[in-house]
Amino acid sequence: MDLTAAKSWATSAEKMNHGSALVAYQTALKFLDQHVTLLSSSSRHFGVVSMATSSLAVDAFSCGIRHGALTTAVELVEQGRAVFWTHLARFRTTLDELSMARHTGAALAEEFKHLSFRLRNAFDQSTEDQSPQIRQLSSCCAGVTSHGKFIKGCPVHVPIDLTQAEVSELSSEFRSLSEQFGCSDQQNKLAGILRKLWHDIVEPVVQTLRVLNVRPGSRIWWCPTAEFTLLPLHAAGPYERNRDNLSQIYISSYTPTLATLVHARRSVSQYASTQYFVAIGQGNPDRGKELRCVAPELDAIAQRLVPIVSSFTSLQDSLATVQGALDALNHNQWLHLACHGMPNRTQPFESSFTMRDGPLMIKDIIRSNWQNPEFAFLSACHTTVGDKKSPDESIHLAAAMQFSGFRSVVGSMWSVDDEVAQEVVSTFYDNLVDKSGKLDCTRAAVALHKAVKKLRRNNVPLEQQIVFVHIGV
Q: 20 to 30 A Cα–Cα from 157, which one of 172, 207, 316, 363?
């Protein structure tokens, strides 16, 4: 009731141009957080969360911009996005963070370790099915790890001359086009969309970065909202001779939320000196098309990494089962997964990787208890495709990996050609190794950038040059 009343307050204040609108949004987002905490961590409640959030975050952001409160605007949109993942991520908070977090932290630390795994394992239970201890942990931990102010410096507002209807139209046009990739030559239409992205959205941002003296070759992070999440901002450009596209100016990464990126930067593993790598390949699933390049892809990775990592495990064909993959990830911090990716736009928690015996779903990933994961390369199709009705919630395979603790993830925005994936992977791992001969997950964005640059020289179709994206540190 409190959330509904606060949202009505915000709506009325906006209509009347009342000065309390921003406070109303702040109140609504506070109640939203409490509302989500009272729900179970269940995909059955995802619809409830989606309805509760709706456009609340971006409306709050817009209000903050209009009031000239840029920092508050960023904090509000952050608080109202990916709320389902944020709720689940609280139960992966490190014990060190808990122990230092207010007076309740130390008391919760011991109980946390025992119960947090039980809570993740209870994913998809109703609230009534969960034990009183788990429900209590959910409420207490929400207070301990609540949203904080982490914005440093002053945000800069870059006006974009584009209406919401125009963004929706562009997003819809691109989604329709992407479904035809691989079936027909759509190069000219794709280039046209990427030019529009450049002219209307990305070029103004690049011009501002130049004014701020952000040097060419620097890394930048995109944190898109609403239907912007469906657009390949990293690939925007004029696509004309003697003019640089974005990829020739900066190295792009994505992050579903700013808090996720901040957490990933802080989470330096105490086990960094030992590197355990698992490569999982399923090229012959019981159902689905054979992937002939999976075996040579894994062979190339093994040849490059076996001499430098502490341990290298390869699971292929009959060994690449759902349980085999989950067991391997309990003992390895580095993952390469080559298989079919199956997005589910209407039931996003059932999006999956195809293993020999069935689907490895987002649900399974959420229930996992992986220790100190570092990096995942998802060499599969559609791994960043989420729920079409709630794009701000980022319920897709790549996000599931990141919110499960992986600091750095490479995923795909649409269908990946088997041979292109093999070519990208070979070059990628050559560049993921640092000067000391160790794998470094913070080099992933640059490594992908160099691998894609090589594709451009080999005249690979445009949609395959830009299909892979980097998420995280």
A: 172
Rounded CA separation 25/27 (Å): 5
Query: Which H helix or E strand runs over 374?
Result: none
Among 26, 45, 41, CA closest to 87: 41
Helix, strand, coil in percent for the chain, rounding step 5: 55, 10, 35
Cross-strand pairs, 252: 220
DSSP 8-state class, residue 432: H
For 300-352, the pLDDT digits (tens) are: 999 999 999 999 999 999 999 999 999 998 899 999 999 999 998 888 889 99
Taking a C-beta distance cutoff of 8 angstroms, is the pair 300, 357 a contact? no
List the structure tokens of 153.
């410096």
- Structure tokens belonging to residue 320: 């690449």
Cα–Cα distance, 19 to 235 (Å, whole number): 40
| Helices 2-15, 21-38: inter-axial angle, 10-degree rounding | 160
Q: Find how far residue 373's CA is from the centre of its chain.
A: 15
CA angle 470, 396, 224 (to 5 degrees): 55
Cα dihedral 62/65/71/72 (nearest 10): -50
Cβ neighbours, 10 Å, residue 83: 24
Q: What is the pLDDT of residues 186-224, one digit of tens each?
A: 889 999 999 999 999 999 999 999 999 999 999 999 999
Strand blocks (E) in 211-264: 219-222, 251-254
Contact 290, 325 (CB under 8 A): no
Cα-Cα-Cα-Cα torsion 25, 27, 33, 34, nearest 10 degrees, comes to -150
Residues in contact with 250: Cβ distance below 8 Å, sequence separation at least 6, in sequence order: 206, 209, 214, 216, 217, 218, 219, 220
* Burial of 152 (C-beta count, 10 Å sphere; 0-12/13-18/19+): exposed
